[in-house]
Amino acid sequence: MREYTELALAGDAAGAAEVAATLEPVRAVADTWLHGEAARRRGSPVPYIKAWAGLLGMSGGPVRPPLSQVPASALAALAADLDAAGLPCATPSAP
């Protein structure tokens, strides 16, 4: 994101668009898990945001009640989607 922002600010719209396009796989994962219709049916995206962060090695941590932790099967599917999008992640573990 930083790279395409810098290119855009420097006036290189074509270069910025080319770099921005490389993030489409990540945007698709975000749409599936955080923003899309299936995500809206699950309710709050917070458990999935925290799980995503944790899978990438950031401090995600468990969610607080009344929210529920991401189920193990969904955590594994999210990890697979992130890996397929080019964001290798830690092996998912149940909180």
In N-to-C order, the SSE pattern is: HHHHHH
Task: Give helix % range.
Answer: 55-70%
First CA to last CA: what distance?
30 Å
Shape: elongated
Annotation, overall tally of beta strands: 0
- In what range is the share of β-strand residues? under 5%
Q: Number of DSSP helices?
A: 6
The helix-and-strand class reads mainly alpha
**Average pLDDT across residues?**
90
Low-confidence stretches: none
Largest sheet: none
Number of domains: 1
Description of the molecule:
This protein has helices spanning 2-9, 13-21, 24-35, 37-42, 46-55, 72-84. It has 6 helices and no strands. The longest helix has 13 residues, at 72-84. By secondary structure, the protein is mainly α. It is elongated and about 45 Å long. The chain has one domain (25-95).
Short description:
The protein has 95 residues and is mainly alpha-helical. Helix content is 61%, strand content 0%. The chain has one domain (25-95).
Blueprint of the fold:
Elements: H1 2-9, H2 13-21, H3 24-35, H4 37-42, H5 46-55, H6 72-84
Helix pairs in contact: 1-2, 3-6, 5-6
Task: Provide key terms for this protein.
61% helix; 95 residues; mainly alpha
